[in-house]
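The authors assume throughout that readers already know how a fold can be written as discrete tokens. Each protein is reduced to its one-letter sequence and a matching series of backbone shape codes. I therefore recommend that a typical entry be quoted early in the introduction. For illustration, here is how one protein appears when written out as sequence plus structure tokens:
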Amino acid sequence: MKDNSPLSPSNRISFSSDNRSVSISPVQRSDSGEYQCTYRNPVSSETTKLSLIINYGPEDVSIKGQDVVDLGVRVSLSCSANSEPSASFSWKFNETDTNVTTDTFTIDQTDFTHSGDYECTALNNVTKRSISQKHALLVKVGGGGGGGGGGGLSSGAIAGIVIGVLVAVGAICGLIVYLNKTKIPEQNLQQIRPASGAAQTRQEPEYEEINDFQKTNGEGTSESSLYVNLCENGNHGFSNRPRAPPPPQVSNPPPVRR
């Protein structure tokens, strides 16, 4: 029996003709366990046990940790391997021994010199087999965590920032267009108003009182005359021509000869 279950023959397991022995070839790691053999006679029986350990590995070596880290943070890289007995570990940094012989490589405070390749080697002292695995680490200012799950922005946060920037730019462009559309008519209106005033001035002549005087005729009656000066050539205001003096007053006009 194996692990309290009946052990049956298979392509790897065979029994002797008297069942006194069992052969396993080739052995696998799953063959590890507790084997039981029971023998009996017509009077009594007895069972004996044997623990079988299959040495293997190391296999499936891997390093878990961050790929990209910020400057001045603490970083830990963890190395693991399937092995029986348990493997021992050693670390190299950029092909140079670090004297670290545990399964975890720790950097208390990162600086730019810590960027490079970290290599973990797992060794089985029984099988004398070893296997290595490398891990690249980048230290930079403001860097987010890579495969190790650092503090970088998520894709959703980045998308939100991009959308917000686009909305802000669109709002600014729309405001500029609106201001331009409202400003141009005002400028045109200011340009039209003086022209309209000038046209109105040309259409409505201005008058200026020059002088009131009395002209006495032969019958002794008088009449008032008003001299005016028109705005000429579309100029605003009154003309700069000199004003004519009023005609002289005659009390007794000379007789007319016929």
